[in-house]
Design goal:
- This protein is an alpha+beta fold.
- It is 44% helix and 16% strand.
- Among the domains are: 30-125, Ferric Hydroxamate Uptake Protein, Chain A, domain 1 (Beta Complex); 129-183 and 261-383, no CATH class.
- The protein has helices at 2-24, 55-63, 129-149, 157-168, 193-205, 211-217, 225-238, 242-257, 264-273, 284-296, 311-323, 340-345, 367-383, and strands at residues 25-33, 39-48, 65-70, 73-79, 93-99, 102-103, 118-125, 298-299, 302-305, 308-309, 334-335, 338-339, 348-349, 352-353.
- The strands form five sheets. Strands 2-1-7-5-6 form a five-stranded mixed beta sheet. Strands 8-9-10 form a three-stranded antiparallel beta sheet.
- A hairpin with a 2-residue loop joins strand 13 (348-349) and strand 14.
- Helix 7 runs antiparallel to helix 8 (242-257), helix 9 (264-273) packs antiparallel against helix 10 and helix 9 (264-273) packs parallel to helix 11 (311-323).
Length: 395
């Protein structure tokens, strides 16, 4: 009988000790939430009441926390494999700290752990809905259509220039290297200024030798305004002689003065071509004339051209404006509160763009690549500190 009572006593004491140990062991949950509200990570972390580790150490030990410290406290860069969108490229996105689904009023260093607490790192942005959609559409285009425009059969020069600029500015995008070339270089054309311009974009984007194209361009003269704009853009890419640039600029301005027909595409292209010379006294009249014309053609649907607004012309204007350092979202380029970027986005269908809003199908030939490029040009202009003028074809 004594043995039985002893066994019962030992069992009772063991259960009591186990109960005490369980009461000392607590846990808190860590979540990572994406910008669209998806839960990317959810993990329970065990801690003990007498644990001397702080919150940062506990999360770091469990999930590999990437953080930096300063006089202002601890800044969380990433948790495990999860980082904010555009990490190391911009500060447009960051993790906001939430405690039990409410934004924390204290830094992570000062959190007092309690059993069952939930700590959430919620991806957040200061961008408004229009700018947020710009970023989303750029990535959607790259996912859905990059291979459509850059492949072994063709390259679309607006798309290629845009992807190169995304590469140079550190954004997530297909990396352009010589080993990634699919298009046969022997098929590159240089028989006129327009095709030489496209070839110069290709060679510059893939870091190829520009000598042959530079030589071809040196023999061209300006035959008209569109020809002159292509030639001036190409000379910028291949670092042509200053003498030829000055001659082409002078001829282009002369042709522009005598131009009887004017539309939004022309105005946008002219602003782009003149952007390296926007501070020259010789270009001021032409630039002012183009911007005033664009403002006179603004509608709630974009820039009027050929009787109604369309995505291609609106995109051309946006590219030209940011090349001059002009914000296409400013009040000067808005009608009834709708700016040019918002107007352009209205043409978007799953990452592609209609030519006109009444169209049932996307225009894959012109509007889609040009609208994508306009969004890229605007994005980089927007993201660079101080918003300096940004020329899509200067790289």
């Amino acid at each position: 009988m004594k043995k039985i009572w002893f066994a019962v006593t030992v069992l009772f004491v063991s259960l009591m000790l186990a109960g005490c140990q369980e009461s000392d062991t607590k846990s808190f949950k860590v979540e990572v939430v994406s910008i669209n509200g998806s839960i990317l990570l959810s993990e329970d972390i065990i801690f003990n009441e007498d644990d001397v580790s702080d919150v940062v150490e506990l999360i770091d030990q469990a999930l590999d926390l990437d953080y930096s410290t300063s006089d202002y406290g601890t800044f969380v860069n990433g948790i495990g494999e999860f980082y904010p969108t555009e990490h190391e490229a911009t500060y447009n996105y960051y993790f906001a700290l939430y405690i039990n689904d409410e934004m924390s009023t204290t830094g992570i260093d000062n959190i007092v752990l309690t059993d069952g607490m939930k700590i959430s790192f919620v991806e957040t942005t200061m961008l408004d809905q229009i700018d947020l959609k710009v970023d989303q559409i750029i990535q959607l285009f790259l996912t859905n259509y990059y291979d459509t425009y850059i492949n072994d059969q063709q390259f679309e020069h607006f798309v290629l220039a845009s992807v190169k600029q995304l590469n140079l500015h550190g954004y997530e995008s297909p990396i352009l290297t010589q080993s990634s070339i699919d298009f046969p270089v022997e098929n590159l054309l240089r028989e006129n200024a327009a095709n030489s311009f496209k070839t110069a974009i290709f060679e510059s984007a893939f870091n190829l030798d520009l000598t042959t194209t530079q030589s071809a361009l040196s023999g061209f003269e300006v035959m008209g305004t569109y020809d002159g704009m292509a030639l001036l853009n190409a000379l910028l890419l291949v670092d042509g002689s200053q003498t030829q640039k000055d001659s082409v600029l002078s001829a282009l301005l002369t042709f522009a003065e005598g131009q009887s027909y004017l539309d939004a595409d022309y105005a946008g292209m002219m602003l782009l071509a003149l952007s390296p010379y926007k501070d020259d006294s010789s270009t001021q009249n032409a630039i002012e004339f183009m911007t005033e014309y664009i403002q006179s053609e603004l509608t709630v649907d974009g820039v009027n051209a050929y009787g109604s607004a369309n995505a291609s012309s609106t995109a051309s204007v946006i590219i030209g404006l940011v090349a001059q350092g002009i914000n296409p979202r400013s009040e000067a380029y808005a009608i009834e509160g709708i700016d040019l970027i918002e107007a352009l986005l209205a043409f978007e269908i799953n990452g592609a763009f209609q030519w006109q809003l009444s169209d049932e199908q996307a225009d894959m030939m012109f509007s889609t690549p040009q609208a994508f490029s306009a969004l890229v040009a605007y994005k980089i202009y927007r993201d660079v500190r101080g918003n300096p003028a940004f020329n899509l074809f200067d790289f």
